[in-house]
Amino acid sequence: MDAEQICFEMICHVGEARSSFIEAIQQARQKAFSRARELIDSGIDSYNRGHAVHARLIQAEMEQQNTPLSLILIHAEDQMMSAENFKILSEEFLSLYTVLHDK
């Protein structure tokens, strides 16, 4: 598999993850806390698949199989960082909405 295909695979997984995290925040706002938790867990699974793909790129580079720096790689890594940020935020929002609901 070439680097471009790997990047697209990474974008697919972390895009799924980010969507799950955003939907989890929306579900938490609606007080659907168990659904929000399911979405976060699903997002984490997708994120981990994307992260594993990213690790393959790093491994290839360590083995002197240089991956050319491209806009698609930069985009893939940007999407991965965005998903990670939404992961953190979704966990925080779920906690916050749960506390507010319990008051």
Automatic annotation (TrEMBL):
Alphabetical UniProt keywords: Phosphotransferase system, Sugar transport, Transferase, Transport
Gene3D superfamilies from the UniProt entry: Phosphotransferase system, lactose/cellobiose-type IIA subunit (1.20.58.80)
SUPFAM superfamilies: Enzyme IIa from lactose specific PTS, IIa-lac
A Pfam family recorded for this sequence: PTS_IIA
Family annotation (PROSITE patterns): PTS_EIIA_TYPE_3
Sites of Phosphohistidine modification: 75
InterPro entries: PTS_IIA_lac/cel, PTS_IIA_lac/cel_sf
Top-level taxon of the source organism: Bacteria
PANTHER family reported in the protein's UniProt record: PTS SYSTEM N,N'-DIACETYLCHITOBIOSE-SPECIFIC EIIA COMPONENT, PTS SYSTEM OLIGO-BETA-MANNOSIDE-SPECIFIC EIIA COMPONENT
Name the UniProt record assigns to this protein: PTS lactose/cellobiose transporter subunit IIA
Source species: Pantoea septica
